[in-house]
Amino acid sequence: MATPASIGNFVSEIVRTRGGPANPTLYQFDIAPPSSAAAGFKANMERFGFSFDKELRFLNYLNNEIQIPGVTFQNSEIRMPYKGLALKMASAKVYNEMDLSFYCDTTAMPYKFFRAWIEWVGGTQQNQGYTQRSASVKHRTSIMRYYNDYTCDMTITKLEKYGPKQKGEYSSPFSVRLIKAWPYTISSVPMSSASVNGLVKVTVSLYYEYSAPYK
After folding, report:
1. Can you give the residue range of the structural domain that contains 27?
2. Closest of 162, 179, 178 to residue 170, by C-alpha
3. DSSP state letters, 94-108
4. Residue 173 belongs to some domain of the structure
5. How far is Cα 30 from Cα 208, in angstroms, rounded to an integer?
6. For the whole model, what pTM was predicted?
7. Which of 7, 90, 100, 207 has its CB surrounded by the most CB atoms within 10 Å?
8. How many domains does the chain fold into?
9. What is the C-alpha separation between 23 and 19, in angstroms, rounded?
10. How far apart are CA 189 and CA 199, in angstroms?
11. Which residues are paired to 158 by β-bridges?
């Protein structure tokens, strides 16, 4: 026969055997440049005035919100096997889009980082091969790069203070990797003289092919 447990006993059991409830503020993420164009990808970041490898650490510090992406199955309804019953069977897996939010520092680094990434996907440049009739007329084209040259793998790692870990480090109960992610939109950044003590925030949305548990 089941023995009822009090809330106090349940909480103490969770703390003793599971380390307590998870902390939503402990996490980190990493972005791996595209293997087919890593040098060009990083050089494009440097053109905007910062180093890709160094700024990842500050992006983690300035990150305000991140999500572990959800997964949904689409289903197909089948009525043939059992008379009067409709069976639902998995037909396709759908991965939710990825949203990140950042606070901007005085250098606006989060905005510049993802804007540089978007410019790498498809920047606007002057067409040098077109003969201009007037010096005031400038003809520009927007060229999209190859898919594999601008998509990056992104790893999100959940961290905890308690649990199996090395000395001086956080434990890592799980990680999720987003395969071939790329930013498709950067939100508008509102400015207002009324928000004297406010913080400047930028939100970025990413597409990716799929997500997978990673350790």
Report:
1. 22-65+98-214
2. 162
3. EE--EEEEEE--TT-
4. yes
5. 15
6. 0.78
7. 100
8. 1
9. 11
10. 11
11. 27, 174
